[in-house]
């Protein structure tokens, strides 16, 4: 297995995507690369997120098919779903509306990969699949306040507040939105299983299928990090989509699997890792 990094091959440039395929000659490509993050980075860099993710997807799949790759595993996002559906997000509803305005610039770019895969399968016979991932968290995450997703953001805030003896911590929005959190190692296992077992061009959700409100998440992270001060709610920051939780019925059937790590265990492992590696973790932008 090879894991090329962006400093070696910048996939925004087609010739570098081609050089990457030529260097490794892979049978399977798992396209994980993305310029993305939590709700705030979409407000800071909407244009860059749109352009880089759109062209990276197009380049990597085109370079893969030119290099004779047998299987292409496209990694998509729950941000591709319509922004205002009722209930949990089912694969059949993926095309039923526009993504939420806080993430539309990201969600649509990844969704285009699903269409590219469908078109390439039809014309070139490329075995392309499209996996839709939910919010991830775990060791080696990005803990930068502007870029991080909510779990990493809260871990950093509460760990630092505890270490520095602060009496209050700022959290964003109202706490009412509901999200789904998948531990990164479980996600990696699901991707490998899908690469082995799933050969259909129709998208497949990958998640834990369980909703947790931001308020509930805050309570768990506070408890595990030992912070017992006051919360200050900054409602100038957006709530985003009210419910973003994947229906994982199809995943459980086709992968014969469900994620083994509970939210509490996963957060505990992530906090332990963060505390032990704080200096390095904080440097990652
Ligand atoms: P999203 O799932 O694409 O909306 O992105 P995030 O993983 O960043 O989750 C955003 C949700 O968490 C929104 O409802 C935010 O208001 C809420 N939230 C609360 N505190 C924070 C924080 O410190 N950072 C982030 N990123 N989100 C926060």
What do these coordinates show?
The structure is a single chain. By secondary structure, the protein is of the alpha/beta class. The protein folds into 2 domains: 14-136 and 180-206, NAD(P)-binding Rossmann-like Domain (Rossmann fold, 3-Layer(aba) Sandwich), CATH 3.40.50.720; 143-178 and 213-242 and 262-279, UDP-galactose 4-epimerase, domain 1 (Alpha-Beta Complex). The protein is built from 10 helices and 11 strands. Strands 1-2-3-8 form a 4-stranded parallel β-sheet, with helices on both faces. It has a 3-stranded mixed β-sheet with strand order 9-6-11. A two-stranded parallel sheet has the order 4-7. The longest helix is centred in the N-terminal third of the chain and has 21 residues, at 46-66. The mean pLDDT is 97. Guanosine-5'-diphosphate binds next to helix 2, helix 5 and strand 5. Residues 38-40, 79, 103, 135, 148-150, 153-154, 171-173, 177, 179, 214, 237-240, 244 line the site of guanosine-5'-diphosphate.
How would you sum up this structure in a few lines?
Helices cover 45% and strands 15% of the residues. With 285 residues, the chain is an alpha/beta fold. Strand 2, helix 4 and strand 3 (127-133) form a beta-alpha-beta unit.
C-alpha termini separation: 26 Å
Query: How do the helices and strands follow one another from N- to C-terminus?
Result: HEHHEHEEHEEEHEEHEEHHH
The residue-averaged pLDDT reads: 97
CATH superfamily of the largest domain: NAD(P)-binding Rossmann-like Domain
Q: Enumerate how many helices there are, as a single number.
A: 10
Instruction: Flag low-confidence runs.
Output: none
Quickly give the CATH architecture of the largest domain.
Answer: 3-Layer(aba) Sandwich
Strand order of the largest sheet: 1-2-3-8
Bound molecules: guanosine-5'-diphosphate
Describe the largest sheet.
4 strands, parallel
Identify the overall geometry: globular
Secondary structure: number of strands:
11
Residues in β-strands, percent: 15-25%
DSSP helix fraction: 40-55%
Task: Give me the CATH fold name of the largest domain.
Answer: Rossmann fold
Radius of gyration: 19 Å
Based on secondary structure, the structural category is alpha/beta
- In CATH, what is the class of the largest domain? Alpha Beta
Domain count, please report it.
Answer: 2
């Amino acid at each position: 297995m090879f894991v090329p990094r962006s400093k070696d091959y910048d996939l925004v440039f087609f010739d570098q995507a081609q050089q990457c395929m030529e260097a490794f000659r892979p049978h399977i490509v798992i396209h994980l690369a993305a310029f993305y993050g939590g709700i705030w980075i979409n407000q800071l860099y909407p244009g860059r997120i749109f352009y880089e993710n759109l062209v990276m997807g197009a380049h990597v799949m085109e370079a893969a098919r030119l290099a004779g790759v047998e299987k292409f595993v496209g990694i998509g996002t729950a941000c591709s779903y319509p922004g205002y559906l009722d209930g949990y997000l089912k694969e059949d509803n993926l095309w039923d509306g526009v993504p939420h305005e806080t993430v539309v610039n990201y969600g649509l770019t990844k969704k285009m990969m699903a269409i590219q895969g469908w078109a390439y399968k039809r014309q070139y016979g490329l075995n392309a699949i499209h996996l839709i991932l939910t919010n991830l968290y775990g060791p080696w995450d990005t803990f930068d306040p502007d870029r991080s997703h909510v779990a990493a953001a809260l871990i950093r805030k509460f760990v630092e507040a505890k270490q520095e003896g602060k009496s209050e911590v700022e959290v964003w929005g109202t706490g009412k939105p509901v999200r789904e959190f998948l531990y990164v190692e479980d996600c990696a296992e699901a991707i490998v299983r899908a690469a082995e077992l799933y050969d259909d061009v129709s998208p497949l959700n990958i998640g834990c299928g369980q909703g947790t409100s931001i308020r509930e998440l805050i309570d768990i992270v506070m408890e595990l990090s030992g912070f017992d001060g006051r919360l200050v709610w900054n409602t100038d920051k957006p709530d985003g989509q009210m419910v973003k939780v994947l229906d994982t019925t199809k995943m459980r059937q086709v992968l014969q699997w469900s994620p083994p790590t509970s939210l509490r265990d996963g957060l505990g492992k992530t906090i332990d890792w963060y505390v032990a590696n704080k200096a390095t973790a904080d440097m990652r932008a």
